[in-house]
Design a protein that fits this description.
Elements: H1 9-15, H2 17-21, H3 28-36, H4 40-51, H5 54-60, H6 65-68, H7 71-74, H8 87-96, E1 115-119, H9 123-132, E2 138-143, H10 151-154, H11 163-174, E3 179-182, H12 189-193, E4 199-202, E5 208-209, E6 224-226, H13 227-235, E7 245-249, H14 253-264, E8 269-273, H15 285-293, E9 298-299, E10 302-310, E11 313-326, E12 332-336, E13 342-345, E14 348-351, E15 355-356, E16 390-392, H16 395-398, H17 403-421, H18 443-446
Parallel strand pairs: 1-2, 1-4, 2-3, 4-16, 6-14, 7-8, 7-14, 8-9
Antiparallel strand pairs: 5-15, 10-11, 11-12, 11-13
Length: about 450
Amino acid sequence: MKPTDTADPGYFHKVVDCQWACPAHTPVPEYIRLIAQGRNADAYMVNWVSNVFPGVLGRTCDRPCEPACRRGRVEENNRAQPEPVAICRLKRVAADHKGDVRSRMPAIGPKNGKRVACVGAGPASLTVARDLAPLGYEVTIFDGEAKAGGFIRSQIPRFRLPEAVIDEETGYILDMGVEFRSGQRVQSMRSLLNQGYDAIFVGCGAPRGRDLDLPGRREAADHVQIGIDWLASVSFGHITSSAKRVIVLGGGNTAMDCCRSARRLGSTDVKVIVRSGFAEMKASPWEKEDALHEGIPILNFHVPKAFVHENGKLTGMRFDVVEAVYDGHGKRTLVSTGEPEAFVECDAVLIAVGQENAFPWIESDVGIAFDKWGLPVLDGSTFQSTLERVFFGGDAAYGPKNIITAVAHGHEAAVSIDRFVHAQDVRVRPAPTTNLMSTKMGIHEWTYHNDV
């Protein structure tokens, strides 16, 4: 074992497991201590500096910090199922009880003459704008929708994330002098490049939901929808009711949002059907738990085979029942059990089996290279593309992830843009900020001074 190198600032990040596990490295012990002291506004601002959207994330984060929490290991000998500190929900506590923090937002510096365009108004682009606007940058955000937020606004149901929370936290950023061009979807990268921006950030997400090319799909098209498109229609009020019997295909968080939304829109028989096992589902454990708590069954190890219809009217789906078989290297293969195909009746199907990136507006000859999966070729630490003044982040960079990862990408891309426009090496990153003051809760909180 190598000796501890306390001269490396990164060491102090890694010592706090939950903080290191957070992609944005939010100082978790610090804000929890502030909440314990009743200083919710201070706790909110500690969060805001790192993760930009405490109110949003306090309700929707994938919580990579909680599996890393030491409490799960400390208590493993004391209880059958040790649990971490409720880090995510405490973030919401701070956000809901902070009061008015507008006066605590950073002052905007004098204009520095540099112009930056952000494509898309999701969490990555908004983070870039939040980081650069106080430094005097003229930041313009382009988005096809009327309000900022991207998939935060269009894909997350209102029963999980009220629109007022989105409006508030996107408003803090737009009020920094950021120009938001709503209803203006960028149609051409070449045209944007010709507008003289010093740098361009692409944070348009992964907007295309995957489809399933199965027998009966075209014939029953009126009763089959892509999950993310359906959620957007629900969010914007275009869909206000749902069929009586609904099958949701997929095992991720989008599938959980679809099934729970369908139930709230009037569906009485909702089933989630997944090709993998329950434990292997990509949905967060608490999302699966919420769906089950609402009486929504999850059928595992069912591989969809066909949409069954009568003259275009969907009547159900056929599935092959499979089991997981692992080889000597741990690689999983789904093998049919040999049982008869399962038939599940339904009136509608929502397909939530993943998302894909789509950049039809980026011309092939502008100098931006893409890999065989259709993702931009980027420097992993700077998020700079092969066209040096274009940067990517969020789902647009490496495919669908989550909000906190998009925020982390935005922070790194903002650093790169700042260095690039000042003709500095973007590969030289600033040292991590480190607070050497103990924020541990426990005996440090009990010490006191006496006069003896």
